Backbone:
């Protein structure tokens, strides 16, 4: 069933040259508020379409949207269907259901043996001037706070990993009893939600556990605990919510929208101190539906930290100023787009860049972190750079309770250290530096 759902049309394969793939035979439609049933039926008739799902999140409702999105299945290729409904009076927009993928290639011992260079600074031991400086922040007493919450929109997270146990959120609003106690539409969402599998288990374990390596790796960089073994994260104390939308064949726009809105709803209704989401994925084209979801997060003061991307099939980083990479290219004030650097301060060869569209560089080559089955692995990618920045956001928020998203982003940007390899390659021309947080 999964293979059928994610089968790629010829058009989507053609879009692959742009790094974009779409779910075959599916389109996302935003009908105009008040559109009649006859008008809706006429739109569907143009493409022999059937409603597969109506997406109306609590965040959409809170922001006055009673219509939501309609996911439509059609026997036509997605892009052909879009051409047939374009300009219909009853719709605001229609777009592909894009497929996104993660942007990675494949006193704690990993810290003390020199492996966690991304956390070092010029005066730490071990030292590396091109690290994030987290070790220097710890030396001043700032090791994070469990009252600061970040969302990990990615694969799932092994919340039982020895370095992550207790760092991943346990939902106090919805005890495990088979009832949606908090009325958010998700039953027993204990640690978050698996939007790909549409269930409450964010870590699949078993033979499929390795499918959550990437999300678990991201979590470890943000907040692996200081427990005398394994690795440690930018924060020793933090609360992470797992929002799994990347599955075996990637993730879709529809599920990305739900994941972003899940965090917005939590902050909106429960006042949780959610400061950012980490988004180490990309590959789709511009999506108005996802743009709107990130905008709703912006309205609730939630930063959206996003990987700049790893270039095309040639493995060489591309200029996002010339060819946009989404979601990092969304022009919203809460977005922080992140490039990757190596331990010698060079821009990682695979990393995308952009003088106006990428904000900052961070450690992204040879990054050790937690992976599934209680293991540790070294990965490369802007996927790995992004959680260093998200970790920095959480570290700043821990030391500055109540700071706005704009204030935190300004702190990240203004503290960046000038780096020759990033000059003219990103907005700050520099690399992440949390040593003063």
Residues:
């Amino acid at each position: 069933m999964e293979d059928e759902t994610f089968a790629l049309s010829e058009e989507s394969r053609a879009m692959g040259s742009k790094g974009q793939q779409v779910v075959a035979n599916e389109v996302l439609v935003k009908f105009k508020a008040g559109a009649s049933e006859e008008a809706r039926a006429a739109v569907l008739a143009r493409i022999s379409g059937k409603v597969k799902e109506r997406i109306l999140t609590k965040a959409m409702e809170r922001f006055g949207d009673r219509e939501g999105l309609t996911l439509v299945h059609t026997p036509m290729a997605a892009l052909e269907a879009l051409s047939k409904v374009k300009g219909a009076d009853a719709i605001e927009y229609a777009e592909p259901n894009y497929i996104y993928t993660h942007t990675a290639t494949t006193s704690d011992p990993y810290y003390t043996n020199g492996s966690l260079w991304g956390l070092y600074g010029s005066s730490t031991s071990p030292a590396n001037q091109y690290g994030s400086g987290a070790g220097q922040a710890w030396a001043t007493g700032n090791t994070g706070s469990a009252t600061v919450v970040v969302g990990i929109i990615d694969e799932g997270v092994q919340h039982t990993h020895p370095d992550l146990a207790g760092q991943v959120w346990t939902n106090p609003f919805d005890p495990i009893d088979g009832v949606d106690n908090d009325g958010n539409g998700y039953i027993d969402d204990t640690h978050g939600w698996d939007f790909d599998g549409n269930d409450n288990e964010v870590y699949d374990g078993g033979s499929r556990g390795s499918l959550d390596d990437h999300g678990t790796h991201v979590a470890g960089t943000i907040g692996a605990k200081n427990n005398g073994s394994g690795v440690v994260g930018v924060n020793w104390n933090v609360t992470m919510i797992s929002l799994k939308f990347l599955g075996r064949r990637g993730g879709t726009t529809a599920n990305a929208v739900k994941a972003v809105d899940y965090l917005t709803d939590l902050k909106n209704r429960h006042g949780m101190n959610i400061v950012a989401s980490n988004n180490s994925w990309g590959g789709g084209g511009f999506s108005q539906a996802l743009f709107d979801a990130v905008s709703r997060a912006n309205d609730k003061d939630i930063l959206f930290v996003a990987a700049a991307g790893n270039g095309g099939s040639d493995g060489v980083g591309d200029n996002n100023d010339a060819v946009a990479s989404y979601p990092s290219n969304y022009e919203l004030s809460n977005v922080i787009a992140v490039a990757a650097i190596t331990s010698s301060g060079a821009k990682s060869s695979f990393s995308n860049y952009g003088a106006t569209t990428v904000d900052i560089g961070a450690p992204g080559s040879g990054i050790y972190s937690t992976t599934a089955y209680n293991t540790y692995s070294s990965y490369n990618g802007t996927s790995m750079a992004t959680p260093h920045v998200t970790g920095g956001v959480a570290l700043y928020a821990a030391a500055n309770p109540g700071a706005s998203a704009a204030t935190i982003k300004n702190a990240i940007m203004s503290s960046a250290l000038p780096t020759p390899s990033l000059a003219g390659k990103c907005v700050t021309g520099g690399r992440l530096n949390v040593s003063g947080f």
